[in-house]
Amino acid sequence: MHLTHLSCTACGQRHDAAVPQNVCTACGKPLYAHYDLAAAGRTLTKDSLRTRGKTLWRYREVLPVRNDADIVTLGEGFTPLLPAPRLGAKHGLKKLFIKDEAQNPTGSFKARGMSTAVSMAKQFGLKKLAAPSAGNAAGALAAYAARCGMEAHIFMPRDTPRANVIECQQMGAFVTLIDGLITDCGAEVAKRKAAAGWFDMSTLKEPYRVEGKKTLGYELAEQLNWTLPDVILYPTGGGTGLVGMWKAFDELEQLGWIGPKRPRMFSVQADGCQPIVRAFAAKEKFATEHLGAHTKASGLRVPKAIGDFIMLDLLRKSGGGALAVSDDEMIACTKEVGAAEGVFPAPEGAACYAALKQLLTAGQVRPDESIVLFNTGTGLKYLECYSA
Question: Is-above-0.90 flag for pTM?
Answer without folding.
Answer: yes
